Amino acid sequence: MEYRRLGKTELQTSLLGFGGYHLLEIPVKEASYLLNTYLDAGGGYIETAASYGLGESERKIGASVSKRRDEFVLVSKVNPRDKETAASTIDQSLINLKTDHLDVLLLHGVENPDVLKRALQDDGSYAAALEAKKAGKVRHIGISMHGKPTSLLEAIKTGKFEVIMSTINYYDRCNFPEIEDELLPLAASTDTGVILMKPLADGFLYKNPETAFMYAFSRPISVVVAGINNREMLKKDLELAENYKPPGQEKIDAIFTDAPELGEYVCRQCEKCSCVRGIDIQEVFASEAYFDRQMMRGSVGDTAYYALSERLKFWFAQKQDGYDRYAKLNPNADTCDETCEGPCRAMCPYNIDIKYKMRLAGYKLGQKKIY
Ligand code: SF4
Ligand code: SF4
After folding, report:
1. Extents of the domains making up the chain
2. Model confidence at 117, in pLDDT bands (50, 70, 90)?
3. What is the best residue among 171, 253, 268 to mutate for testing ligand 2's pocket, by most ligand atoms within 8 Å of CB?
4. 73 to each of 39, 47, 142, how far by Cα in Å?
5. Region 113-132: what's the mean pLDDT?
6. What average pLDDT score do residues 150-165 get?
7. How far is the CA of 119 from the centre of ligand 1 (A)?
8. What is the number of the ligand closest to the CA of 279?
9. Cβ of 347 less than 6 Å from ligand 2
10. 292 — pLDDT class (breaks 50, 70, 90)
11. What's the rounded Cα separation, in Å, for the pair 240 and 333?
């Protein structure tokens, strides 16, 4: 399996990383089988968090592969924002994992700049991470968040973090384009290591793992972390990593044309349409993307996707960001009504029914009742 350098940490990480959250769902014996099979196959990155099952994921990893500690990069995460609790959490992680050090500790789920600010205070969790690093308990310090990458952009600019972990997949490329347009270039220019999480968009892309992993592997990242909890999934993910060949741009472009999850609803933010009444169409749909990741589509359609989208639409919710972005628009979606013949639709390479979507976005973002 391909190995890539994790930015300035100089660690080498295997292309496929083993995410430990879903180990909570299986007995330790099966967890041990999966983790050891992954290492036997050449995998070299295992990740967990103190908060996963109150240490249960860490304990399963410790019980399963601590004797092979020098064969993999070990990453765990800390949630508390205050120094004292964070320090004891780090110590407990080491006990759970049966090791004397983490290769990378991530300040986890730093979802907005206020949380980052708290973590960076003198009595915040960053200070605990720094002390752990000085004591040799932690080799490198990183930070993670989901969705819109505001905190990660700020975190890199502080110069305090060697690694970031971000949501990256072809579905959320359309919802949070700043991840690939701003965050990844900034990470590259500062030699910050990038860990990719959620290659399947929390399972939303479950019908197309080949495409989803191909897209994830092709990003300028070091490791793609996939949650694994059964043998079939492990076998498939390993195959995809082992057989990965960089795709051409044509193949990547085709994903955005053909992917069924995007269909004729999700705005790809391509800037190719315009409105005869002056509505900034792309900005309305970008607000909708923040609101619910463009998941509520006004009809049930495929029931499996409907059920999934109902579960995932407000996952790591950034609804307020959607409202705030939309509130700045004048004119907004209300200016689009039945009297317009909808010349915008012919401009959209993805055949999105812009008038219909505009109405739906207006309901969501104007906080009106849909049904
Ligand atoms: S249908 Fe709506 S968005 Fe499209 S041109 Fe007409 S007013 Fe603008
Ligand atoms: S042309 Fe279609 S995909 Fe592109 S910005 Fe307009 S609505 Fe979105």
Report:
1. 3-254, 281-365
2. very high
3. 268
4. 11, 8, 14
5. 97
6. 97
7. 45
8. 1
9. yes
10. very high
11. 42
